[in-house]
Amino acid sequence: MNEINSVSHYCGGILISNQWVLSAAHCLEDYIPDNFIVRLGAHSIQTDFEENAIDIPVEAIIIHNNYSFPRPYDNDIALLKSVKQIVYDLQNLLKSDDPNKHDIQTALMNRYDFMSTDGIRVMGTVVGWGWLKDSDNNQEENLGDILQKVKVPIISNKECQEWYRSRGRSLTVSPTQFCAGFLEGGRDSCRGDSGGPLVVRDAKVYHLIGIVSAGIGCALPKLPGLYTRVDAYINWMNRYVDPI
């Protein structure tokens, strides 16, 4: 997503139907639809007129009514409705001559059990244009130009809370959240990745599992990132979007 006034990258999002984008509530609170455009099919955020990218204004923003209740970042999920339907055709995308069809597809969501049961951590992939390194100064040099991805292990809520506690931090991870990151740190989502996807690949299919929500710094030891668990909100999304 981009803010219209500054025409700059602000947060990530996930296309879930031909008119709806999923993102994080903390990206959108205190804003109105006119503040944003949704850019789809982009690879570089420094290129204004990328061949396969399209910019679409936002018609409506729906933030979960219990966002940040009872704790900060609880229910950190929101929907954006585009002003028009997005045209895409997965079967004929690459061979289509229709200029209205772009390299875009919707995310696959279902009630997918992604927690480890055999001691082997499930790896998730986070995608975004967030900062390449954590820093106290908000400079463009911290941003990646090209869409980035990183693989991080999903850890249990109990273990996540224990890791935070060992660093002198208090964290309660609700059943609608999960954590992902390395014990030793080093790889993580970061600022600017908020609202973007964490996906898990299973049998050559990528399942949308989480939304980048919160964290302390980036890639620090025993401080994994916090994600909104998407499958906990399918019923909520179905109130607004055709059944998923």
Q: Helicity, in percent?
A: under 10%
Seen as an oligomer or otherwise, the chain set is: single chain
User: What's the total count of β strands?
Assistant: 13
Helix and strand content put the structural class at mainly beta
Please tell me the total number of domains.
Answer: 2
Describe the structure in your own words:
The chain has 244 residues and is mainly β. It folds into 2 domains: 2-107 and 234-238, Beta Barrel (Thrombin, subunit H); 123-231, Trypsin-like serine proteases (Thrombin, subunit H), CATH 2.40.10. 8% of the residues lie in helices and 28% in strands. It is built from 3 helices and 13 strands. It has a 7-stranded antiparallel β-sheet. Strand 1 and strand 2 (8-9) form a beta hairpin. The radius of gyration is 18 Å and the shape is globular. The protein starts with a strand and ends in a 6-residue tail after the last helix.
Secondary-structure map with pairings?
Blueprint: E1 2-3, E2 8-9, E3 14-15, E4 20-23, H1 25-28, E5 36-40, E6 54-63, E7 78-82, E8 123-128, E9 148-155, H2 157-166, E10 177-180, E11 197-202, E12 205-214, E13 225-229, H3 234-238
Antiparallel strand pairs: 1-2, 1-5, 3-4, 4-7, 5-6, 6-7, 8-9, 8-11, 9-10, 10-13, 11-12, 12-13
